[in-house]
Amino acid sequence: MKVLPQSLQDRIAHYMLRKTRGYDREKKGVNLRGAEQILLVYAETNEARFKLVKDIAIYLKKEYGIKRIMRLAYVDVEEKSVPSWHMRKLESDFFCKSDLNWQGRPIRNVQAILNTPYDILIQLDPDTHVALDYFVAHSHAKMKVANHSEARSHDFDILLPAKEGDSWKQRNHRIIEFLSESPLT
Hints:
The chain is of the alpha/beta class. The protein has a single domain, classed as inorganic pyrophosphatase (n-terminal core) (Alpha-Beta Complex), CATH 3.90.1640. The chain has helices spanning 6-19, 47-64, 111-115, 130-138, 168-181; strands spanning 37-44, 68-75, 92-96, 120-123, 144-147, 158-160. Strand 4, helix 4 (130-138) and strand 5 (144-147) form a beta-alpha-beta unit. The termini are far apart. The model has no long low-confidence stretch (mean pLDDT 87).
């Protein structure tokens, strides 16, 4: 039973997110050649997006020899309505509306991933959902990277500026290009 109207609940979630402090983590810069574990975090919109992120993970594994690439999607529906292509697997997982508390914070099905100190967390969709922003803020990842973020820029170690007219694929290709050429060790 919902007591609060959705618009009020959204405003409270955004307010609480602004007030939340991120996890005090060990920070360490690393490029793709030096990374062993990467976490790709994104907002699920359709099966094509799911396949694109899967292709990014396969490319990173083959091209840079990264041992483990975890893909984590936020699906903005209740668990019963999660599309069939999403399954909880070894290197692919999701969380959905059913996994959030009333403030929009993920509280179920993410704790193990949240507590893993990934070498790099790449947020492919910054500022799209409060739930993803909460996840990124509380992740134990050593380095957090995204395209420009209006709401939570202090949660990231590296933010790449957006370019006019860029597609989702182009913006995220630029992140991978930057991390591959970066002198970080």
